[in-house]
C-alpha cells in the first residue's frame, strides 16, 4: 500500500513544495493541501499506520522529523522546532508521542 493510494500525487507535490523552506511547515496546512483533511477516519487511520514506521501504534519524535519523506523521498527533514511544534500539537495526552486517538489531524 502506498500513500498515493489515498492521496493525489499532485496534491502531495503541492504540499511538499509549499514547505520547502526551513521552518515553513504547518501540519494543518499540509494536511489540507494533500487532501487528508477530507478523508474518512478509516483512510486517515491507514495513512497513520504508514507513517508509524516502527509499528508501535504511535508516531514518535524521530518519525515526525522524517514526516515529509513519507510523502516524497526527496523531501527535507523537519527542523527541530517544526518537529517539536508538530509533536506538541498532536500529542493529546502528554506522553511525548502521537497516538491514533485523533492527534494526527
Automatic annotation (TrEMBL):
A molecular function GO annotation: calcium ion binding
Q: Which InterPro entries match?
A: EF-hand-dom_pair, EF_Hand_1_Ca_BS, EF_hand_dom, Parvalbumin
* Alphabetical keyword list: Calcium, Metal-binding, Muscle protein, Repeat
**UniProt-annotated binding residues for Ca(2+) 2:** 91, 93, 95, 97
| SMART domains, alphabetized | EFh
Q: Where is the EF-hand domain?
A: 39-74
**Family annotation (Pfam families):** EF-hand_7
**Can you tell me which residues bind Ca(2+) 1?**
52, 54, 56, 58, 63
Task: Provide GO CC annotations from the record.
Answer: cytoplasm
The role this protein plays is:
In muscle, parvalbumin is thought to be involved in relaxation after contraction. It binds two calcium ions.
Member of which family? Belongs to the parvalbumin family.
The protein's name is Parvalbumin
User: Which organism was this protein described from?
Assistant: Pygocentrus nattereri
Taxonomic lineage is: Eukaryota, Metazoa, Chordata, Craniata, Vertebrata
